[in-house]
Known about the structure:
Strand 10 (215-221) and strand 11 (224-233) form a beta hairpin. The protein has 10 helices and 18 strands. By secondary structure, it is an alpha/beta fold. Helix 2 runs parallel beside helix 6 (182-195) and helix 2 crosses helix 9 (370-383).
Amino acid sequence: MKYSIFSLLRNSFSGHKNWQPAWRNPDPKPEYDIIIVGGGGHGLATAYYLAKEHGLKNIAVLEKSWLGSGNIGRNTTIIRSNYLLPGNNPFYELSMKLWEGLEQDFNFNAMVSQRGVLNLCHTDAQRDAFARRGNGMRIDGVDAELLDAHAVREMYPYFDFENPRFPIKGGLLQRRGGTVRHDAVAWGFARGADMRGVDVIQGCEVQGIDIENGKVVGVQTSRGAIKCKKLALCAAGHSSEVASMAGLKLPIESHVLQAFVSEGLKPFIDGVVTFGAGHFYVSQSDKGGLVFGGDLDGYNSYARRGNLPMVEHVVEAGVAMIPALSRIRTLRSWGGVMDMSMDGSPIIDKTSVHGLYLNAGWCYGGFKATPASGFCYAHLIAKDEPHEVATAYRLDRFRRGLVLDEKGQGATPNLH
């Protein structure tokens, strides 16, 4: 069913009793051409673009739980393409362009809101670094504006500009950045893939990978064995566990990242703002709650819950930037399992096992990359060669010394 004003009017006369399910709930078939492990944003986007761009239909997406139960439903919904390095900037700009036309593309309201992303700077050196980043963005055709303290004050007069430790000296603004309704992204891609013949199978956990003579031939699941010609891994924070079933050890670690939402407020912050003197980022949802997050919890874990010291750390950074935050209540928090790579950049590549493909290591950047990740991963799977904007995301770059370290933190995953 195509969603439109006409379908809305037509169903309103029947008391909204004739809407069709957004996607089917099929049983797995004995064999597929392509199986995608993980029904999150990246897995569903990959299936969608495999069907839409490459005309492939005999595809299954296997999700061990329900759609949207993983990181696609456990993030702070921010999209942006304000990267510096040549290996990253073109990729994230492709993702931004896909975001801008996504709702019309898959006929679903994902609530894409390009309200702007502002990164604050607090020292002269940081301002110079932002000027360099902005120049690098503009060279690649990405919008960027370097603001002084006066321009920032006009946008957000209630920030603590004269903080003795962290005075606000300006910021780097990307007006095309913003937020998107995270779970709607999963629903839209699932619906779009299903309409094109993809089987989206929930409650189907992959428990083993069958390999014969160095080639993938199928998977063992909680719903039986399923054969395939190609197997694509999109398991985010559980990528190491799934890859180990094929005898692979990945250069990533799994860490917990918490996010929070406050009580509902009147319109307060109309964009996305990040604190430059500590890891804190905040925006306001359409329901009025402030959505914010910060650093990783600092230890390896597969548990989707955090610890109280990190709650305190994030709130301290928020209050240092916006003193008024001390007067609001935090209603709830949640945790996602981040697949942190050794250089802070992702992996989209073939593996040493024939027919086995890997999409992992997204660190903090997984949600904003969802459309481009699916688009480029689908290109790799269909054509067995990397997309031109994803050539820097090879798995062997760590061995070859071609790391893509956007933050300059070195081979320390928890710092990226």
